[in-house]
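Task card 7
Instruction: Convert sequence to structure tokens.
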Amino acid sequence: MELRFDKYEGIGNDFLVVEAADPATLGSEQAVRLCDRHFGVGGDGVLLVVPSSVAGARARMIVLNADGSRPEMCGNGLRCVALHLVRAAGETQAEFDVETDAGLRHCSVRLDGPSGWITTGLGQAVPGGPWSADWSQQRVDFHRVSMGNPHTITFREPVTSEQLDDLGPLVSSCF
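Output:
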């Protein structure tokens, strides 16, 4: 299968952006293979851009994570898709909506040569309640919140990258 894609990066997340006429063009198994950093192209996920089923939306974004899972939304991914759509249309400025599995999300793009500004509406946060865990010989309190995909927030001193690698799997288990 031949597949055309562009690779984008948004605040440290890298994605393969694939435009297709049909959402069935690419499935979870193909996304896992493409995102493999040793045997594929490598990426945090595939952003499938297909025609929207909602009147007035410019496109629909389907997110396929590197593990094949499908979250409702990805803020960094939405910024990449918005930039891709504007560049593909040859525009330098645009405002439009993109359909996601979490609903319509508004995008505003203003390009100035190779740089520019991309602003997206992420919708209303949905609180998921508190959660606590023992980590590194201390109790850490978190607040769960969904923006179309699960997040946790804690108000504490910053952690190092090494500590984050240790803490990440623990936090992921709370969902």
